[in-house]
Prior knowledge:
By secondary structure, the protein is mainly beta. It has helices spanning 94-100, 164-170, 227-237, and strands spanning 26-29, 57-62, 65-72, 77-82, 106-111, 125-127, 130-133, 150-155, 158-163, 177-181, 184-187, 190-191, 205-210, 216-221, 243-248, 253-255, 260-263, 270-275.
Amino acid sequence: MKYAFLALPLLALTACEPAPEGEPVTRTRIDGQAGPPAPAPAASETASGTTQVESACRSIIFEDTPLTHCLASPARHRVAMDLGPSGGEPYRSLSALSRAREGAGIAFAMNAGMFDEEGKPIGYYVEGGERLQTLNTADGEGNFHMAPNGVFFGTGDTWEVRSTEDFLANVRERPDFGTQSGPMLVVDGKLHPEISHDGESRLVRNGVGVDEKGRAHFVISNAAISFGKLARFYRDELNVKNALYLDGNVSGLWNPATDRLDTGAPIGPIVVVEKKGQSDD
Length: 281
């Protein structure tokens, strides 16, 4: 996929606006059944001896708020960004991605980064080793510019979250994938200085953090959540020293193992976690 667009310094943060009327964010099943998605199953054998599909995601409760926690391990998974089909426009939805990609090879996928009104990233974006958007260091309003913001990136089995300032100063080689978003939720083990304990802003939100074992923790709330509570979950429960906010209100998850396919307002960049065979951490 090749796009020819340059840095867009102060475009409207479409991802952070309320969902258009008539397009509520919904949690749906792609098997057509009613009701919320089933809890993430563990691998097990049925009475017939067949093995159920193992899910990389689990449903949990943190401070009375339901969350879905999806774990990507370098031993088991590959991480990549996917904005749209080769030569085409951005997918703008997980449903469109699911129609273009074979679900059997995908552990899960999630929106990952803020974007303009066309669905193109407003910050650093690398897909398949090709940089489609340069690092955005401009000042501005909105969550993206709530310094420090940061970058989730990686090459091969090495994945990281760094603040934009840290990335600019210390990362010299272009990664295989990368997406810039903001704000950082946790920086060097401390909550973002401008995030309150449990602020009034409550939305369905998602983020990513990488632990000391190099595993990437993707979290999406299944109900409205504050920045502070999401950040504390990363710091206190997952022991992640650097975590990045990916977005809110438009946040969604595709988990083929549980037939979960979230729909709602249009999205932009998508992170895809692919299976690469079973092995131990």
